[in-house]
Amino acid sequence: MRKSLATVAVLVGTVLIAPGAATAKPPGHGGHGVQNVIPITQILAFGQKVTAVAVEYSSQVNGRTLDRGTYAVSDSLYNFRFNPVEDITDPTKRANRTIAAVYTNDAPALNADKRSDPGKFVIIELAATDPGGNTVMAAGNYVKVNADLQTTVVQNEDVYAQRGQGKGHGPRLAAASDRAYAPTKPAINLLADDFVYKRFTTTAGTMIPYAYHLPAGYDAAKKYPVVVILPGQGMGFNGSNEGVQVAADIPATAWLQEKWTGTSEDVIVLAPQNQRVGTAAAQADVMVELLNAFAREFSVDQDRIYSSTVSYGSTLAWAALATYPGLFDGALITGGFAAGAAQATAIAASGTPVWITHGTHDHLLNVVTTGQASYNRIWNAYMVLGKTPAQANALVKYTEYADSAFYEPDRHLAAAPTYEDKTILRWLLAQ
User: Fold this and answer.
1) E strand map for 360-422
2) Which one, 18, 31, 104, 414, has least CB within 10 Å?
């Protein structure tokens, strides 16, 4: 159902993001055997990947007969940050995933305690940071969520139903075989599926896809801080990749999880997906119109609006910080482009707190001419205004990451180590 945010702005069409389209018929026969294979994804520091698989049987499974050797899970080693897209389906570019836990459940869902509950689903949890299972793929100069996941499961040992009268294995549900079962249902995308995906049309007729997430138990009578996520160049909208700005990197979903933020405070997340057409200033104008319309629709604390950027998203943030002083109450710039001298002067004049992070060996944006230059320009602008060094240090901060801070060798994605530091995220929410 369409909703009007205001007479000058229109929200249209919810977009369903469901990577992992069914690729095979359910392989069960006569109520026995494997019925379905369902990938489960999570978004980690370097983006979304398959971190578990739910295998469905015809009836309750005897969890006592299962162990990590019961199954083997294989996946493509393709990673859009490093590999050619052809590697996705290359049979020589695959590897077995590390199985971390196996248990039963009554739904295709994870159990925090990794213990079996009665149910017909076997949950195979995988080591989160081992190679393989990445869901984001290249699409020309952009990226998108892969609709055809390459995860497969082999059942190495017989799987049995619950025991009758408490004795024995119970009836055999599926015999061991070397058959590799591909996904039969779309992936369950933890947190990413909880976002609402829509489109916004500006007064000038420009369309921009966006995603947002409201806290559980959202109360319109309360005011909530909002973090605006401004993604990288490849996560911009190319006509067919809606939703990738949530899946490709950690920033959008981190604010929903206390394990990342270090606080239980409820936060609204807004993730625009600009079309990367025209200047950064023009794209910033579109983003700001969306933000203002969103803030009229939802209960946003006008004194706690923050921006967090990845790579190219910094150009929109710098433009907005300079052109709309006071719009943002704090900004986190990770692995970004340089703020211009005039922008630095305007940002210092507004007094908006900024924390800049960058990788020392960023292979795409040289740290000296981007991260360091932005920090130095803003800091020097505060000196011109008569601030003391201590005052400037409180308003503009800088962190540079050595190679050891990146668990994947992409030194450009400074968002990964930045978001692993709860101190920085709590700092942003405190502004």
Assistant:
1) 396-401
2) 31
pLDDT > 90 fraction of the chain, expressed in percent and rounded: 90
Same domain, 182 and 203: no
DSSP state of 108: S
Predicted TM-score of the model (pTM): 0.90
Query: Is pLDDT larger for residue 5 or for residue 299?
Result: 299
Assign 166 a pLDDT band (cuts: 50, 70, 90): low
pLDDT range class, residue 163, cuts 50, 70, 90 = confident
Residue 139 shares a structural domain with residue 268: no
- Asked if residue 284 is part of any domain, the answer here is yes
pLDDT tens digits for 190-207? Answer: 999 999 999 999 999 999
For the cut 90, the answer to whether the pLDDT of residue 82 exceeds it is: yes
Q: For the packed helices 371-384 and 341-350, what is the interaxial angle rounded to 10 degrees?
A: 50
8-state DSSP, 39: E
Q: CA angle 91-97-103, nearest 5°?
A: 135
CATH of residue 161: 2.60.40.2180
Mean pLDDT value of segment 416-423: 97
57 contacts 30 by C-beta, under 8 angstroms: no
Which domain covers residue 103, as residue numbers? 36-189
Q: How many Cβ atoms from other residues are within 10 Å of residue 281's Cβ?
A: 15
Q: How far is residue 416's CA from residue 163's CA, in Å, rounded to a whole number?
A: 46
pLDDT for the residue numbered 165: 64
Q: Do 283 and 173 belong to one domain?
A: no
Establish if 95 belongs to a structural domain. yes
Report if residue 20 sits inside a domain: no
* Residue 181, domain member (yes or no): yes
Rounded Cα distance, 261 and 430, in Å = 12
138 plus 238 within the same structural domain: no
299 and 407 co-located in one domain = yes
Same domain, 415 and 308: yes
Question: Residue 49 and residue 407: Cα distance in Å, rounded?
Answer: 15
What's the CA gap between 45 and 43, in Å, rounded?
Answer: 7
Residues 215 and 364 in one domain: yes
Q: Decide if 113 contacts 101 (C-beta within 8 A).
A: no
Q: Which two tokens stand for residue 47?
A: 């983006």
In whole angstroms, how far apart are CA 253 and each of 310, 336, 373? Answer: 14, 20, 29
Q: Are residues 134 and 265 in the same domain?
A: no
Q: What is the mean pLDDT of residues 254-258?
A: 97
